Amino acid sequence: NAGVTQTPKFQVLKTGQSMTLQCAQDMNHEYMSWYRQDPGMGLRLIHYSVGAGITDQGEVPNGYNVSRSTTEDFPLRLLSAAPSQTSVYFCASSFGQLPSGNTIYFGEGSWLTVV
Amino acid sequence: TQLLEQSPQFLSIQEGENLTVYCNSSSVFSSLQWYRQEPGEGPVLLVTVVTGGEVKKLKRLTFQFGDARKDSSLHITAAQPGDTGLYLCAGGGTSYGKLTFGQGTILTVHP
User: Fold this and answer.
1) How far, in Å, CA of A63 to CA of B102, rounded?
2) A-chain residues near B85 (CB < 8 A)
3) By CB count within 10 A, which of A58, B4, B24, B109 is most buried?
4) In terms of CA atoms, which chain A residue is nearest residue B29?
């Protein structure tokens, strides 16, 4: 029972490089999202998707792109990495819509350092 | 923009003590969730409260949603070292993807 799988776990990038954080879930969840977690700031929503082919911006979308071609996958792309994007990134998925109380499952996180 | 103020930010107590973590906002939320996060892992949902005034209990943990659905509290009775971790509250709006998280409370319970 894999749940939400994120790769890579750790990554170091140079300023200006691009990369993709992968996220896959095997629970047939419609809803997927990406958050970043920084010290003292909780988790902040970057982008989210309510189904294949549908994405929308969250609170801090600048510098990130997403696409949702399948129900299972929701990759997050950093177009030109900046030191301000050094953070821990979490992918999450849910079967249903809040506030029905559906459980949101988080991946284990991807630690990204931009130097 | 909806904001959730969580307090205290840090809490260091001895085993057996009681504690309360608060989550306050000027905005109304459709639901309020509490998560616990261990180092190196993602947050794990503890509870969801959706009705104003609702109280839920999970063993030694008691969660309350304010009558106006603007605030919530987490009370732990007789804390144990296994309760150590980061506790996060998160408010849900009327559409998915709009979870607003508090800053988190780092709880350390000493044996």
Assistant:
1) 23
2) none
3) B4
4) A99
How far is Cα A31 from Cα A69, in angstroms, rounded to an integer? 13
Residue A69, number of CB atoms within 10 A of its CB: 10
Q: Which tens digits make up the pLDDT trace of B83-105?
A: 999 999 998 865 555 688 999 99
Summarize pLDDT for A39-98 with one digit per residue, the tens: 878 899 999 998 999 999 988 999 999 999 999 999 999 999 999 999 999 999 987 665
* Residue B58 to chain A, least CA–CA distance (Å): 16
**Which residue does chain A place closest to B104, by CA atoms?**
A42
A42: closest CA among B74, B4, B73, B68?
B4
CA–CA gap between residue B24 and residue B71 (Å, rounded): 4
